[in-house]
Design a protein that fits this description.
The chain is mostly helical and about 240 residues long. It is built from eleven helices and three strands; from the N terminus they run H-H-E-H-H-H-H-H-E-E-H-H-H-H.
Length: about 240
C-alpha cells in the first residue's frame, strides 16, 4: 500500500515536471517569435543541429556561418527568386498553401518520391525553431509556430528571416554568406542569374551545389528566371510590400 502511494506520488510529480518543461519550451518559442519580429536572428535551430552533429561525428572543422543583413541589403532579385522557386502564393496565404498540400498528397499516393508543400512561412518556422524530420509532432509544432508567426510578423519580415537562415551549402546559411562564398560579393549586388542559381538549390542544398551545378540545377535556374519575369519582376515585390 505504501509502495503504491509512493509510485502515485512520483508519477504526479513527474507529470508536473513534464508539464512545466513543455510550458517553458512553448514560452521560449513564443518569446523568440516576438523578439525576432524586430531583432536580427543570431542563429537558427538548423544551424545548431548541423554544428552539434558535426562535432558528434568528429568534424571540428565545420562551422555553421551566417551574416545577418536587412532586406534593404538584399538584391530584389534574390527575394523574387526565392518566392518564384519556393512559394509563389506567399503574399496571399496565411502560412499554408492548401492547393499545394492537396497536390502533394495526391502525388505522394501515386509515387514513392515524396513531394513537400511547405510554404516559406513554414520553412522559416521549422528552420528557426525546430529540428529536421518528418514526424507528426514536428509538423504539428511547425503549424502552430507558423500561425503565430503569420499573426505577429509582416510578410516582409518572414521573407527577411527566411533569406537570412536558409541553408545554401555546407556550413553556409543566409544569402549574405552564400553571396560572399560563391560569388565574392554582397547579397545586395546579386544578379538575377546568381539569385536564381542560389534559389535553385534550396530544395536540398546539401545535394545540389551552387559551385558545381548539375544539369538539373541549371534547368531549374532557367525555370526560376522565367517565373521571375512572368511574376512581374521588381514591381511584384513593391506591390506586395516585400522589398
Amino acid at each position: 500500500m505504501r509502495l503504491s502511494f509512493r509510485s502515485g506520488s512520483f508519477a504526479a510529480r513527474a507529470g508536473k515536471w513534464l508539464a512545466a518543461g513543455c510550458a517553458a519550451i512553448l514560452g521560449a518559442w513564443l518569446a523568440a517569435v516576438v523578439l525576432f519580429a524586430f531583432l536580427p536572428v543570431p542563429f537558427s535551430a538548423v544551424m545548431v543541429e548541423r554544428q552539434v552533429s558535426a562535432w558528434l561525428h568528429g568534424n571540428f572543422r565545420y562551422v555553421a556561418h551566417s551574416d545577418w543583413v536587412s532586406m534593404d541589403d538584399i538584391a530584389p532579385a534574390m527575394a523574387l527568386a526565392a518566392i518564384a522557386a519556393e512559394d509563389q502564393k506567399f503574399p496571399e496565404h496565411w502560412g499554408f498553401d492548401l492547393d499545394a498540400i492537396q497536390a502533394a498528397a495526391a502525388h505522394n499516393e501515386r509515387s514513392q518520391r515524396m513531394r513537400g508543400a511547405s510554404t516559406i512561412s513554414q520553412q522559416t518556422a521549422k528552420n528557426l525553431l525546430l529540428w529536421n524530420g518528418r514526424s507528426w509532432t514536428r509538423k504539428g509544432l511547425e503549424a502552430a509556430i507558423t500561425l503565430v508567426m503569420e499573426g505577429i510578423w509582416t510578410k516582409r519580415r518572414i521573407l527577411t528571416v527566411y533569406l537570412n537562415i536558409a541553408e545554401f551549402g555546407e556550413g553556409t546559411f543566409g544569402v549574405e554568406a552564400a553571396a560572399q562564398r560563391y560569388f565574392h560579393k554582397s547579397a545586395a549586388r546579386l544578379t538575377p542569374s546568381e539569385a536564381a542559381l542560389l534559389a535553385a538549390v534550396l530544395p536540398n542544398p546539401l545535394l545540389f551545389r551552387v559551385s558545381a551545378p548539375s544539369r538539373y540545377v541549371q534547368m531549374r535556374q532557367q525555370w526560376i528566371l522565367r517565373q521571375m519575369r512572368q511574376m512581374g519582376g521588381d514591381d511584384y515585390l513593391r506591390e506586395n510590400r516585400l522589398h
